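Need residues for this backbone.
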């Protein structure tokens, strides 16, 4: 017989007792109060941890013992490395990884720049068609030409640059750059030099012709372009030309503007209506238009064409020293515009590699900066000819100069007539 009220049983009693929570301990018997009273800080209980506090000096609580990091009672949060010495070699590894990443970036940038620049070089001159060439000597000889090509210029630009609109191309400047182990030399060839244009068969506008006879040097270029010019220079000097490089008006002016102008000390006021140059005496920063007019003008020069070649050499020295600087070479926002302006109108021979081009530029920079010889081809004065007033070469000095260049000897010839 059930001793409990109706509906109750021993099982009901047991379930009732299990559902009834235990009464809390009195405050004076609480372990937390006891810990606080003893001066230690109790550890907070983590999820799933036992109700009892851990022993002082040990972590515990939380999942699998909690995120404690030692000390009296521990604490929540990830482990800290404060006060812990770094592992040996960890800093060295970080430095190596950083340096490796930097090298990879520099290599990638350099390779990309090389591919971009090499693709813009216009290899249009075939020196293999030049006949009766002299033997090669020591060192490398570049024929560098500044042409009056209007390619790439608009009608307004032609007016601004005072270039006119003449068809075809002529040479405003010609230089031989010799790069050798015994020093580099830059020899200007006056455009009015009276020379022999050798036998050369070519074609112009579909018509065959043969050129030969005494004429001014720049006539060779106007007759049949770079190949006849190279042939004429080799015939009159006996010096083998290894590479050819030509830049037009647009490229020249573009380089100057891209580099931010070229600072020069102008010795006197120049007011030349033919070139359009109007500048004052003193230190001036020439923009592209002014620079082009400066290297072209000759009517304001007492020495005429010889005075012009000297101005060209002075300007190249200033341009090279202000272009080949870390501020330009290491700054892609300046380097690419400068290179692009030059490469867009630069015409070279088919065997000219980008490395040859860079070597030529650095040699010109060195010579223009005083590390080498810069001079005009020796002349013996002006003469009247059937093509007008021209400059006669001093042949004994010319032969000595060419011999020294061919044998890569130190040049001892002076250009004085």
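Answer:
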């Amino acid at each position: 017989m059930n001793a409990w009220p109706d509906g109750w049983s021993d099982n009901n009693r047991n379930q009732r007792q299990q559902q009834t929570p235990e009464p809390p301990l009195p405050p004076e018997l609480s372990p937390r109060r006891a810990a606080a009273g003893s001066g230690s800080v109790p550890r907070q209980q983590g999820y799933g941890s036992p109700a009892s506090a851990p022993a002082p000096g040990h972590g515990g609580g939380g999942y699998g013992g909690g995120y404690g990091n030692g000390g009296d009672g521990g604490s929540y949060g990830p482990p800290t490395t404060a006060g812990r010495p770094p592992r040996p070699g960890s800093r060295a590894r970080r430095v190596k990884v950083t340096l490796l990443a930097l090298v990879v970036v520099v290599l990638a940038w350099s390779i990309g720049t090389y591919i971009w620049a090499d693709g813009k070089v216009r290899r249009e001159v075939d020196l293999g068609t030049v006949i009766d060439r002299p033997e090669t000597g020591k060192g490398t000889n570049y024929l560098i030409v500044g042409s009056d090509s209007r390619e790439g210029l608009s009608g307004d630009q032609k007016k601004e640059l005072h270039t006119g609109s003449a068809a075809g191309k002529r040479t405003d400047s010609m230089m031989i750059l010799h790069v050798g182990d015994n020093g580099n030399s830059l020899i200007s060839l006056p455009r009015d030099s009276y020379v022999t244009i050798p036998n050369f068969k070519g074609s112009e506008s579909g018509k065959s012709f043969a050129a030969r006879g005494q004429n001014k040097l720049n006539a060779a270029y106007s007759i049949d372009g770079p190949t006849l010019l190279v042939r004429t220079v080799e015939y009159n000097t006996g010096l083998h030309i290894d590479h050819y490089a030509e830049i037009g008006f647009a490229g020249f002016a573009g380089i100057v503007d891209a580099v931010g102008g070229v600072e020069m000390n102008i010795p006197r006021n120049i007011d030349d209506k033919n070139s359009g140059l109007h500048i004052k005496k003193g230190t001036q920063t020439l923009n592209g238009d002014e620079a082009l007019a400066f290297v072209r003008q000759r009517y304001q020069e007492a020495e005429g064409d010889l005075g012009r070649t000297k101005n060209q050499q002075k300007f190249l020295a200033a341009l090279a020293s202000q272009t080949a600087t870390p501020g330009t070479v290491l700054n892609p926002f300046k380097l690419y515009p400068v290179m692009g302006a030059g490469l867009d109108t630069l015409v070279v021979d088919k065997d000219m590699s980008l490395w040859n081009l860079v070597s030529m530029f650095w040699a010109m920079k060195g010579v223009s900066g005083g590390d080498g010889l810069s001079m005009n081809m020796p002349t013996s004065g002006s003469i009247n000819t059937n093509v007008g007033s021209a400059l006669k070469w001093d042949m004994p000095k010319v032969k000595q100069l060419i011999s020294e260049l061919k044998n890569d000897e130190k040049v001892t010839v002076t250009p004085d007539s």
